[in-house]
């Protein structure tokens, strides 16, 4: 287990982050591996959810981890699909911006995209870590649990990684961060890693300060595996960015546009229902549509001329929304709609 990394993938330089004293705060390096098995499509390998566990059944939904789509993952989801659970888990720190515990979901999503850009530019495999935990305690999925990342050189195929966003050589992790990391480590036993998979600090196996002395000092607390995550990774913006336009998205949109906030889009033509599978809960589909105030307000916000603001969803309104949001214009709200994801991001940021 502790042997040298294979160097099958030639000539990839490790990515090192050092401080002014030359201390290596973090070093990322891919394992060797068959180059032909890369999968560039980030949609190709969704989190399979609970793996067939060899241990006791673990209760579900103990942790909230915001999905990759929520922060706008743009690149590959690692480079290989991994079979079976991990046998060890490593704690890292990212040595990127030190956000405050009160940071917005939008600010955290931006950090996730920045982390992804680093991994993509260095290794071409998207974000390096499996899960990233911010000082707020919110957790975001990086490289999927069943995909190989670039976090713990030589053991990327057999280990998984929990990364604290920031520098924990110089900063203390927050209580919320430690609690979330512990919840994730506990939840992953028998699910993402074996029941017996130990948790180490990156520096236990590599010449680096990672995860930083202050985080390293909390390893036993995290190993205890008891903790909680904030109730929704979409808080405090309020919305999980999933590309599905349901009641919660409508309610936030109504609040934003100043129309009655009941979460319902009333009186819409049933003709458009099946053509727009991304419109989910809280849509009132009828044969004789009268339109709704929130859609009329949205039509105004997206610049449709006043004579066409009929309060009814349809290809013209959807196209106007897509143009307004800068997403591809096809006039339909598909499942996992890019336009709805962008709308949700903007609602979380308070700028529709
Ligand atoms: Zn590390």
TrEMBL record:
<dbReference type="InterPro" id="IPR006619">
    <property type="entry name" value="PGRP_domain_met/bac"/>
</dbReference>
<feature type="domain" description="N-acetylmuramoyl-L-alanine amidase">
    <location>
        <begin position="75"/>
        <end position="212"/>
    </location>
</feature>
<feature type="region of interest" description="Disordered">
    <location>
        <begin position="1"/>
        <end position="56"/>
    </location>
</feature>
<dbReference type="GO" id="GO:0009253">
    <property type="term" value="P:peptidoglycan catabolic process"/>
</dbReference>
<dbReference type="InterPro" id="IPR002502">
    <property type="entry name" value="Amidase_domain"/>
</dbReference>
<dbReference type="InterPro" id="IPR036505">
    <property type="entry name" value="Amidase/PGRP_sf"/>
</dbReference>
<feature type="compositionally biased region" description="Basic and acidic residues">
    <location>
        <begin position="1"/>
        <end position="10"/>
    </location>
</feature>
<dbReference type="GO" id="GO:0008270">
    <property type="term" value="F:zinc ion binding"/>
</dbReference>
<dbReference type="Pfam" id="PF01510">
    <property type="entry name" value="Amidase_2"/>
</dbReference>
<feature type="domain" description="Peptidoglycan recognition protein family">
    <location>
        <begin position="63"/>
        <end position="206"/>
    </location>
</feature>
<protein>
    <recommendedName>
        <fullName>N-acetylmuramoyl-L-alanine amidase</fullName>
    </recommendedName>
</protein>
<dbReference type="InterPro" id="IPR015510">
    <property type="entry name" value="PGRP"/>
</dbReference>
<dbReference type="GO" id="GO:0008745">
    <property type="term" value="F:N-acetylmuramoyl-L-alanine amidase activity"/>
</dbReference>
<comment type="similarity">
    <text>Belongs to the N-acetylmuramoyl-L-alanine amidase 2 family.</text>
</comment>
